[in-house]
Amino acid sequence: xxxxxxxxxxxxxxxxxxxxxxxxxxxxxxxxxxxxxxxxxxxxxxxxxxxxxxxxxxxxxxxxxxxxxxxxxxxxxxxxxxxxxxxxxxxxxxxxxxxxxxxxxxxxxxxxxxxxxxxxxxxxxxxxxxxxxxxxxxxxxxxxxxxxxxxxxxxxxxxxxxxxxxxxxxxxxxxxxxxxxxxxxxxxxxxxxxxxxxxxxxxxxxxxxxxxxxxxxxxxxxxxxxxxxxxxxxxxxxxxxxxxxxxxxxxxxxxxxxxxxxxxxxxxxxxxxxxxxxxxxxxxxxxxxxxxxxxxxxxxxxxxxxxxxxxxxxxxxxxxxxxxxxxxxxxxxxxxxxxxxxxxxxxxxxxxxxxxxxxxxxxxxxxxxxxxxxxxxxxxxxxxxxxxxxxxxxxxxxxxxxxxxxxxxxxxxxxxxxxxxxxxxxxxxxxxxxx
Length: 435
Ligand code: NAD
Fold this sequence. Notes:
This protein folds into 3 domains: 2-197, NAD(P)-binding Rossmann-like Domain (Rossmann fold), CATH 3.40.50; 207-290, N-(1-d-carboxylethyl)-l-norvaline Dehydrogenase, domain 2, CATH 1.10.1040.10; 298-431, Rossmann fold, CATH 3.40.50.720. Helices cover 44% and strands 14% of the residues. It is built from 18 helices and 14 strands. Helix 1 crosses helix 3 and helix 11 (263-276) packs antiparallel against helix 12. The chain is globular. It starts with a strand and ends with a strand. The site of nicotinamide-adenine-dinucleotide has 27 residues, from helix 4.
């Protein structure tokens, strides 16, 4: 099929490359000239495992191109809208300006029978409004939320857990199901469950899923607070409750909490939308989920101060991690970078290292010190903070690292190190939710 992808960020660039690898002819459009130029050279503008290889392969077939020129979408059968929906400055609600302008710019190029597939995460009610705006264009809207995880984005796009189509209750709506089935013929043939719903349900599925995941993380982090007050161990607690299949062990890792370009802003936008709908009470628990999550960052700073005798000022602190999670260079609402920035504000001499997120971190926090390796970062440090669980941090050798530091003190913000190994090597090891 001929496909256009509007907005080529973390979601759209991966979607475009994956659709081309499934055999479709794809044009990606982004307003960001730098991004479109990099993608046109077959270069991924951000770190995502597997994406560079996929881009190279797809570009070589001649089926994938990128541009800033919206007119290039003319002639496509399906247009995927993948632009950002960030949190509005000073408010909880989502900023819809990018979605609105993408639809306005796309409209002149729509043809009879086209399908416009919304993939951005939007407040419920958006699809209904946009479908009304498309009336008379000949195109039909389908809401097709995306569930990919950064770090596994290629795998998740090619082999999704499920496909959700929110469609219009009309003949055209029925046809849009057939069109998307053709787009996703390969994953569907592999047995991917496919659910057809109305618009409202499809939009809610996405924010409900993210709210559940955020709640699960904040639940175990709330338990971590109880563990800290009682001397219990949150990792053992998670293992024990996780054996109950109704609970499950995944997403029960206590630590510095969630961040990134989705979970925090999605739960806030969901609360804002519930307020507009007069059902804010249904989601007041999400306010607590958000508060628990942010308290973990404050707790990490408390531990850092305590380890250094009450203040971090003028003390050398090594920060390992800036990305909001491993295998990503995304620093949007990153707990790790947030803690590093706060340490800097308290006059700590921060030296930060992250395997992939350094350029983004430097652009956001140029005031911090940066190192080129773990060894450089910890050299002479009086305190080491592990804040993003990159594999190379998890696998650090406490003896070797111990030779470089100026004080064997480590705070494990992700509960990924083996405490006995560090203590045996002479370190003071502390973590969130454990003694
Ligand atoms: P992003 O900021 O990385 O990408 C958005 C892109 O859209 C940018 O490159 C921007 O330049 C471009 N853009 C903005 N206005 C445009 C326009 N009018 N025409 C063409 N391009 C335009 O954001 P993202 O992380 O890719 O997220 C996009 C959407 O997908 C959001 O709604 C997000 O919540 C949702 N989502 C993201 C993920 C994820 O893991 N990143 C997963 C699922 C859903």
